[in-house]
Amino acid sequence: MTYREDFTLPAELMERVSQEGFDILPELIQAIINAAMQAERQQYLNAEPYQHSEERQGHGNGFKPKTVHTRVGNITFAIPQVREGGFYPEALEKGLRSERALLLALAEMYVQGVSTRKVKAVTEKLCGVTLSSTQVSHAAALMDTELEKWRNRPLGEYPYLFVDAHYEQVREDGQVRDLAVLSAVGVNLLGKREILPAPVPQVQVGVSVALSEHEVHWRAFLESLKARGLGGVRLITSDDHAGLKAARLAVFGGIPWQRCQFHLQQNAQAYVPHKDMLGEVAADIHTIFNAPDRATAETYLANSVQKYQKTASRLAEWMAANIPEGLTVFSFPAEHRRLLRTTNGVDRLHREVRRRARVVSIFPNPASCLRLVSAVLSEISDEWLTGRIYLTF
After folding, report:
1. What would you measure as the largest C-alpha separation in the chain, in angstroms?
2. Which phi and psi angles does 34 have, rounded to 5°?
């Protein structure tokens, strides 16, 4: 394989994509990753191919083949080499963490004797080989060490913090149980988002995943973040779950709280007496949340409470008591409010985890759930940190 200066995909390959569709996917992935690795080596060497320069950091030394088992089959990549050593492209490894975690989760279902014939077939197809228990244990240990470092990394100042949870099914003690994945997303001083995982205490699993959303689990999760240096928090956005609320007050009691406006909209539906009122009520709450300032929002709220006093008294009472918890965001810069008023970003994160975990269905044990969730979230967090700024301070 020779040096390239143009890392765009060849025209003939793009033409085959339109003709062959998914059948060319392995070859397409190979071309993209190979091009990315070559570009990465060129950047590492700090010089164009064959360029004589004082800034050059080393010299290319050909390529070495490496076959990787992926969900689209075995793909052999050309790994760029550097004569002086010390270089290995991240382009190949980035994105493979969740791939390895998924394969391990499937493999464990087969190895531990809890899988169906269908899962066995899927495992062999995705892994490319039938894995022994020893191979699975060794690979799992390597991955767990890497992910544990990520979950225990030191934290710093995060002015804005979003907290939420979702559930995964895990087999434990002979039963299938729902375990809560407790997640926190922070916006750092550079305006970029990071996923803030926690080490796993006792029965808790995941980023942190616990047997429930009881206060004790939320409190352990939040305290672990604080112990690793989380500070500078100006606002916490979350739902009104009782366990989370109690834990938040215990650990971050003095920090302003923004109740998720999206969840408030959903909660209001339970107090609407007639279905034909749903649209009207939603529009009134939407008007409150989109007011130009807090004083105007409170005026809109007072008008709505009065409006529904006779036709929907329970709704009016609920609005007066709960809607103000969704107005804290008005104390923050106008350009930040739209991004701070809901936990929708965390919900999208959870949907991505569910999508990646769908093929597993039921995790064979808490460790495999921890592994896959951590791998997926660490990848997404890396993408956020190297991507565009979420907001500007």
Report:
1. 83
2. -60, -45
- Give the contacts of 233 (CB within 8 A, at least 6 positions apart): 158, 159, 160, 161, 186, 252, 255
Segment (H or E) for 177: strand 175-187
Tell me if residue 203 falls in helix, strand or coil.
coil
pLDDT in tens, 80-117: 888 877 777 876 766 666 666 666 665 555 444 444 45
Domain ranges of the chain: 11-93, 98-150, 155-386
Rounded to an integer, what distance in angstroms lies between the CA atom of residue 235 and that of residue 332?
9
Tokens 């004797």: give the residue.
113
- Residue 274 CA to residue 25 CA, distance in Å, equals 51
Single out the residue of 120, 68, 56 nearest to residue 92, CA to CA: 68
Q: In this structure, what DSSP letter does residue 275 have?
A: G
370, 101 contact by CB (below 8 A): no
Q: What is the pLDDT of residues 152-189, one digit of tens each?
A: 899 999 999 999 988 888 888 888 888 888 889 999 99
